[in-house]
Amino acid sequence: MTLHHHLHLVSDSTGETVNSVARACVAQFEGIEPQEHIWTLVRTRGHVEKIVEHIRREPGPVVYTMVDEGLRRLLEENCRTIGVPCVAVLDPVMHALGLHYERTSVGRPGKQHTLDNEYFDRIEAMNFALAHDDGQLNEDLTLADVVLVGVSRTSKTPTCVYLAQRGVRAANVPYVPDVPLPEALFQLQGTLIIGLTKDPARLVDIRRSRLRVMNDRDEAGNYADIDSVTEEVKEARRLYARHHWPVIDVTRRSIEETAAAILTLYQRHRAKAAE
Question: Residue 262: its pLDDT value, please?
Answer without folding.
Answer: 96
